[in-house]
């Protein structure tokens, strides 16, 4: 797999686009600048890797739009040394962004084909999540909780209670909530029993599915 000067140049431009769209977290922008996003896409779509768009990957799923990845990561408000649970491993790109920022990553994927592909691929390019799990993200990973942040990368029809329960006090759940269109919603755990809710506009994701196939 190659990462040429052309690719690097295109990534710099993508980072500038993300800045113009309002992303300010330097660690997030630096991670996007470093990671060869074209490696995460099927060869037919490589030309589109540095356009700010979502694209198809295997199993009818998508690699999220770079702006969306950047925004969700920024909203987590995590830093080096923190621990994050990701729901929806997909291509592994969001995991790579978090790992590049020095975050410990746990990630869950319910599509077996994608799970197998991405669990082989990420370590091959040097990104090693602490755990990659084939399973149902609605349940989270209680055995490894609590987390500093939880990021859901598929559209959730409702907010799964187990995910709120698996946050540290001070931690944030970043979750797009809704059916056809989702509202990016952040729940901050302010105490054992209290959560503060904030909303950050409309996004479109593939659905967070219940029941494994
Ligand atoms: N984070 C990914 C985005 C993938 S799209 C990336 O950076 O590429 C959303 C992913 O969520 C898909 O791979 C889909 O299979 C997965 N998904 C959907 N419902 C799920 C569930 N209940 N549990 C875990 N993963 C789920």
Walkthrough of the structure:
The strands form two sheets. The chain has a seven-stranded mixed beta sheet with strand order 5-4-3-6-7-8-9. Helices cover 29% and strands 25% of the residues. It has 213 residues and is of the alpha/beta class. A hairpin with a 5-residue loop joins strand 8 (182-189) and strand 9 (195-203). The structure holds S-adenosyl-L-homocysteine. It catalyses: [protein]-L-isoaspartate + S-adenosyl-L-methionine = [protein]-L-isoaspartate alpha-methyl ester + S-adenosyl-L-homocysteine. GO terms for molecular function: protein-L-isoaspartate (D-aspartate) O-methyltransferase activity. The active site is at 64. Its main location: cytoplasm.
List the helices and strands and how they pair.
Elements (H helix, E strand, L loop, with lengths): L4 H16 L5 H9 L20 E2 L5 E2 L2 H11 L6 E5 L5 H8 L3 E6 L2 H13 L6 E4 L12 E6 L8 H5 L1 E11 L4 E8 L5 E9 L10
Parallel strand pairs: 3-4, 3-6, 4-5, 6-7
Antiparallel strand pairs: 1-2, 7-8, 8-9
Helix pairs in contact: 1-2, 2-4
Bound molecules: S-adenosyl-L-homocysteine.
The site of S-adenosyl-L-homocysteine (SAH) has 23 residues, from strand 2, helix 4 and strand 4.
Function: Catalyzes the methyl esterification of L-isoaspartyl residues in peptides and proteins that result from spontaneous decomposition of normal L-aspartyl and L-asparaginyl residues. It plays a role in the repair and/or degradation of damaged proteins.
Enzyme class: transferase
Pfam families: PCMT (PF01135)
